[in-house]
């Protein structure tokens, strides 16, 4: 059974930084693609960034150059460093795990709130 637990959300002023963490239980972390999604009020959940098991990354256009996703397979943890935050980054951020045998995320964290004030 895989469980994902996010931490690091909070309230920050525009231009500030936050670092989200997601710790995974189970033994498939190192062979899975990890992702961060977000959902703002009244909007659909959207992909923010993902990192493959080999380390390649992909980002949404809205966060390129400001956010960095990374992973530590020894700690079963994925991170999202968020810099130059904007009010439009305000959302609940979710961690996801996509096993190697799946074409989409199969496991989700409970979410962590990020609020950016102007």
Count up the helices: 0
Low-confidence stretches: none
Number of strands: 11
Order of helices and strands: EEEEEEEEEEE
Shape: globular
How far is it from the N-terminal to the C-terminal residue, by CA?
Answer: 40 Å
* Percentage of residues assigned to helices: under 10%
Mean pLDDT: 96
Secondary structural class: mainly beta
Q: Major sheet: size, sense and barrel closure?
A: 7 strands, mixed
Proportion in β-strands: over 45%
Computed Rg: 13 Å
Topology:
Elements: E1 4-7, E2 10-13, E3 18-24, E4 32-39, E5 46-51, E6 57-59, E7 67-72, E8 77-82, E9 91-99, E10 107-108, E11 112-117
Parallel strand pairs: 2-11
Antiparallel strand pairs: 1-3, 3-8, 4-5, 4-9, 5-6, 7-8, 9-10, 9-11
Model description:
The chain is an all-beta fold. It contains no helices and 11 strands. The strands form 2 sheets. Strands 2, 4, 5, 6, 9, 10 and 11 form a 7-stranded mixed beta sheet that branches. The protein has a 4-stranded antiparallel beta sheet with strand order 1-3-8-7, with no helix packed on it. Strand 5 and strand 6 (57-59) form a beta hairpin.
């Amino acid at each position: 059974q895989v469980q994902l637990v996010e931490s690091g959300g909070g309230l920050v002023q525009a231009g500030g930084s936050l670092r989200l963490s997601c710790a995974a239980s189970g033994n498939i972390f190192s062979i899975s693609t990890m992702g961060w999604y977000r959902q703002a009020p009244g909007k659909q959940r959207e992909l923010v960034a993902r990192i493959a098991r080999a380390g390649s990354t992909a980002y949404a256009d809205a966060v390129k150059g400001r956010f960095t996703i990374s992973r530590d397979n020894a700690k079963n943890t994925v991170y999202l460093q968020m810099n130059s935050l904007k009010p439009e980054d305000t959302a609940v951020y979710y961690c996801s795990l996509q096993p190697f045998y799946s074409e989409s995320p199969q496991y989700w964290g409970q979410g962590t709130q990020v609020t950016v004030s102007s």
